[in-house]
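Incident log entry.

Two folding requests arrived from the same account within the same minute. Monitoring flagged them as a possible duplicate submission, but the sequences differ. Recording both here for audit purposes.

Request one:
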Amino acid sequence: MFLETTLPNGLKVIGEQNPEALSVAMGFLARAGSRDEPAHLNGVSHFLEHMLFKGSEETRAQQINHQFDALGANYNAFTSEEVTVYHAAVLKEHASALQHLLTELLKPAFRPEDFELEKQVILEEIQMYQDDPISRLFDAARENFWGSHPLGQSVLGTAETVGNLQVEELRQYFHTLYAPNNLIFAVTGAFDWEQVVSQLQQETAFWQPSEVQRQHPEFVPTFETQRLKEKQLNRSSMTLMGRGLASTDEKRIPMNVLVELLGGENSRLHWKLVHVGLADEASLSHVDADGIGYLEAFISAEPRKARKALEVFHQVIAEARENLSEAELARARNKLALQAALRFETPYNRLFHLGLEFLYTGRYLSTEETVQAILQVQMAEVQDLLHSPLFDQWSLTLQGP
């Protein structure tokens, strides 16, 4: 059963009830990611995620974490380009206590000493990612493809922007982007809906809405090649990026089936590149985002085989336009449908699908509806996408010796 309401302060509350479940999962989703940050505050969303676990005026970081552990909770948070999610799951008898703790997270104290300590932790995290070749590759590829569009900004931020960040800037960003009208509270599994709503209304009564709206600037992709010459590496890695579909596009599910067929496990790219030894890794994925989307491919090969591997990647696209079979399509549909069924059968996993789907599209899709939508994808839909301009132009970033 799907349930939905909006509190007087603008907080949207959604739930998917399963009385037979033994657990309950819940979380806050904030429409706040790196694409929402001013350039000089790049990394503030991720920094804020860290700070919310440092405690409120009533509790300290250690107390918060001990209280989660006392409930036996699985809990964590993540930040992406478009959303920050605080999530947890417990046995159903601890639902009210878990909800209180999650709400307490969104009352941060922003103590200066916690802020300075966490800044050093994040600066070290940035350095760790800069030391990783694949992280450098993808950062450079996305910056090249997105140009000045905010989706090209790093989730972590840079050493300069994080180093210069002030606690008052963090506090202001929180009050603007974490306004109740920019949040969703999602709950799945076994729970009392009236209790959830009543408790939320009481504990968030003082939260004030704000005027906040995500910007959607015009995007003109950069289709060019850039080279990151790194002599110390013994592999050549390549990332190709192209235009994709928005999360509200009706062709989104056929696109996911298509990229599974082309670049998933045991896909055409696997058999043409990895199986024959031209590459040790080859994949293609599609990311549907808010108002926009993109394709992203990755190939890793020996330097002497890199050029040939890149040629074969383009050949795979060209050949698929001519000779896709119904058997291939059926395999891709069945694989994606099973993945969806397995992934969404527990309350904790359902939480993410429920919350993110609603955040992006404003609609509810059950597991059954998701599975059936995948299984109903037709060859004509896939071929229309393959023959569209989306697969004609690629931004290429090469890294290696």
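Request two (distinct sequence, not a duplicate):
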Amino acid sequence: MKKAIVMFTLIGVTMASVIAQDFNRAKLDEFFDVLEANDRVMGSVLLYYRGEPIYQKSFGYADRSEKIPLTKESKFRVGSISKTFTSVLVFKAIEEGRLNLVQSIEGFFPELPNAEKITLSDLLSHRSGIYSFTSSQDYLTWNTVPKSREELYQIILAGKSEFEPGTKANYSNPNYVLLTWILEDTYQESYPYLLQKYVLGPLGLNNTYIGEEFSPDQGEVLSYRFLGEWQQESITDMSIPLGAGALVSTPGDLTVFIRALFEGKLISEASLSQMTELRDNYGRGIFKFPFYDHFAYGHDGGIDGFMASLSYFPEKDLAYSLTLNGANMDPNQISIAVLSAFFGKDFDIPQFSDDSFTEEELDAFVGVYGAPGFPLDITIRRQKLALMAQATGQPEFLLEHDEGTTFVFRLANLSIEFQPENDQLTLSQSGMKFVLKKK
């Protein structure tokens, strides 16, 4: 559920077909062939132009141990894309006069700090100040265990408040857990029932639902993390993310959903205007993504190794979805390639280095690194002919060799340059550099 930073009639022949012929399909196929040949990514991608799929591709496995290939019908957990669906349900309730944006949540959650100041709008746009339990160091120790509503509510209460409501925005998953409960209490119906009644049923989205236990019989896929080799991820219990991140779907259903949203098939034009209104770069369950001189609205998602992206370009009537169940590269590079192909922009076919180190050479980099004033220790270990890194209290990740003694973790835009002769490393991220010494 992390937020993760990112970003995307007939006259002889359909315009969609014209576009399909114009964009560089062969180069895009080559792009994915190279990724698959180098075992860099597993998932599905779809470009949906004016209501027609003009490019669709699946690559990798739904289950690596059984060698079950992914198909366009494979179902992925799509994490925080769920929030856009939840936001639609809230605006439906507002249109029906059951809720309003400026009402406080005190009547629903009187025990919550600042409940009298937090509005529905604050929850929708992440301006509540409520601490996100997914950021806690212990989150990964309990996220696979079912939680009752009361148990999860007590966890949210324990997180307290990070800032005065309405003063700024900070991404927080409990905002949408609380919205899930508000919807259920308002309608006296379950969230899955409301989702089916107001969104899935009307649009005929038969491959989308709130996940429960992993169900391969329904076409659900496993997720993986690359740590020198692919390892199956643990599975978050869906009693935890709820309307913040529990959705299961396909690229096909996702693109139909977001196009329908902007066509006015789900909420009114006035509601959509409020939903897409930006403040501090946050909409209400949606974000705005730039791509050269174009822009899209959408949301990203990530949970248990699954990564997903959904966007819609109103000016082009173009919907784009990407669902991954494993990535050993920056998934943004995939989106850039696909959208570049559509918009006629150049993009590169990736080249992966064959450079390798011996075990003895890699052992020179192994150790625990830190520095006075730096809040975390960085532990480096060798796994066969690969280097793994882990910051205090955070998940371990694979370092990919870049050049010389520099290794990178592209998902976080992080690089580490080792200086074994000085027993130190230089960590670079987001324009900042830190020199850490081996302890």
